[in-house]
Amino acid sequence: GDWRLLFLYRDRIDHVTHQLVHEAAKKYLKASNRTIGYFRPVDETPPRVDVPTTPDLQEMVSGYKGREALAEGEDFEPSLSNIAGRSEFTQLSNGARVAFLTKENRGDSVMLRINLRTGTLETRWDKGYAASMASAMPMRGSLNYSRTEIQDERDRLKLSGSVGNGGITINTDRQNLEESIRLFADVAKNPSWDAAEFELVRKATLANLEADRSEPGVKAIYALQKHLNRYEKGDPRYVSSIDEDIEGFTNVTLEDAREYYEQSIGIGPGTTITIVGDFDPKSTINLLEEEFCDWMSSVPYERVPNESQGHSPIREAIEAPDKENAVMYAGYDFPFRDTNPDYEAMVVASYIMGGGFLNSRLATRIRQKDGMSYGVGGGFSAHPIDQRGYFSGYAIMGPDNSEKVVAAFLEEVERAVADGFTEEEVEAAKKGLLDSYLRQRSSDGTISNMLNSDMFYSRDMDFRQAREDKIAGLTAEEVSTAFSKYIDPAKISIVTSGDFASLMEESGE
Question: What backbone torsions phi and psi does residue 422 show, to the nearest 5 degrees?
Answer without folding.
Answer: -85, 160
